[in-house]
Specification:
This protein has about 400 residues and is α/β, with parallel strands linked by helices. The protein has 13 helices and 16 strands.
Length: about 400
């Protein structure tokens, strides 16, 4: 039977460029990947034949880590897409309640309008958006499909007793809500199996698209040594500490460039000050990061394989790396499917293995590295690009069976 759909409502965190620039002035988090992924989903939905409207929230950290207490509602048009931003109070606990009320109210106006949505997609396991979508779906007979990117309620070093308690409650709300949706789209199989058992799912590791300023192909600049680049969160559980140590253990002729922000920023800064082979570029914007990728001989993902969360995660950086046309190296994270095997260089996650693997790869010829990079780019864009993922989403939706709550 399936659904015959043309208009999609995407409830999530894709905000206008102006709002995003304003957020960066007030926020100490790293919302770049959230913003980029949200808009890539919008592009993929459009490529899949959907007419897309947005209901979005500014992805702000809770006050006082973000110094704004109140975010008002508004409207915007960005990249040819019309959207509404929900109002919310940016205080722990109150934030979820106000986002739920605002998203539901804004969604009602959308569903009662001249062109109501045929389907609602939800960005992430965010309980206010999940439950406002479920309520809208039941009332107006609209299927609901969340896009799950990671485990909800993960602890951070900023958690208090109150926030940990609220996260446990939030986890129960999410678990209950995922039993009432029509399907889920997930980055890894394990996310679907553990969070939404029995619910039809599509595994979609991410969406590959070159950064705006990316070069169209691998053209290696002349220099006397290899350049290795890591871009992402500066966290020990992401393998950044091991990568820094690998430079000292290395016997090869390569330098390491690191871009990002996180708890290990001071350690990275100190390493760059004491070791001339290490450069720290801070939190780069898209244009700067594209230039760093274009100048790289190897892009690395050193994430340890022993962490439990790797069962549920697919590093978004892997697709971003592959889309550049530069060769990429990764540890064997359990969330990475086997079809990626031929297109990445692989390493174990301990320090000695990282150093030896990078030495071995950097010793290869320019031609060998260029070939590997080009193959990875072709694979990523043809199988995980915007058009490919949009087509897969459309095909997945078309074979879903309407649930009892959908009366169209």
């Amino acid at each position: 039977m399936g659904f015959d759909l043309s208009r999609a409502l995407f409830i999530g965190f894709a905000i206008s460029s102006r709002e995003f620039d304003d957020l960066l002035e007030h926020d100490h988090g790293m919302p770049h990947q959230t913003q980029r992924f949200g808009w890539l989903v919008v592009e993929a939905l459009a490529a899949g034949g959907f007419e897309v409207a947005l209901i979005s929230a500014v992805p702000a950290l809770d006050y006082p880590r973000n110094d704004r207490v109140w975010y008002p509602r508004g409207k915007f048009v960005d990249r040819g897409v019309s959207g509404s931003t929900v109002a919310f109070c940016n205080v722990t606990g109150i934030k979820h309640l106000t986002r739920f009320v605002s998203a539901r109210s804004t969604g009602k106006r959308q569903c009662k309008g001249a062109e109501p949505p045929d389907i609602i997609f939800v960005h992430g396991a965010h309980s206010p958006f999940l439950w406002s979508s479920i309520r809208l779906g039941r009332r107006y007979g609209i299927p609901v499909v969340p896009i799950l990117t990671d485990l909800p309620g993960q602890r951070t070093r900023f958690d208090t007793l109150v926030s940990r308690t609220l996260k446990r409650i939030d986890g129960r709300l999410i678990s209950a809500g995922l039993k009432k949706v029509d399907g889920v789209i997930v980055l890894t199989d394990r996310l679907a199996q553990d969070l939404a058992p029995g619910v039809p799912y599509l595994r979609m590791e991410g969406i590959a698209k070159p950064l705006a300023s990316d070069a169209p192909g691998p053209v290696y600049p002349p220099h006397g040594h290899r350049t290795v680049v890591y871009a992402g969160g500066l966290r020990r559980e992401y393998g950044v500490g091991s990568l820094l140590e690998a430079v000292s253990r290395s016997e090869g002729d390569w330098n390491l460039r690191i871009y990002g922000h996180g708890p290990l920023m001071e350690e990275v800064t100190a390493a760059a000050a004491s070791n001339p082979r290490i450069f720290y570029g801070g939190l780069a914007d898209e244009a700067e990061l594209a230039r760093a990728y274009a100048d790289a001989d190897l892009l690395v993902n050193p994430r340890p394989t022993s962490e439990d969360f790797t069962l549920y995660s697919f590093p978004s950086k892997l697709l971003e790396y592959l889309a550049t046309g530069r060769p990429a190296m990764s540890t064997r994270i359990q969330g990475v499917p086997g079809e990626f095997e031929p297109y990445l260089y692989w390493t174990d996650s301990d320090v000695d293995s990282l150093a030896a693997s990078i030495d071995r790869i950097c010793a290869q010829s320019d031609e060998a590295l260029a070939t590997k990079g080009a193959q990875g780019r072709d694979f990523a864009l043809s199988t995980r690009g915007v058009t490919a993922q949009g087509r897969r989403i459309r095909e997945f939706i078309s074979v879903l069976e309407p649930s009892a709550s959908v009366h169209r």
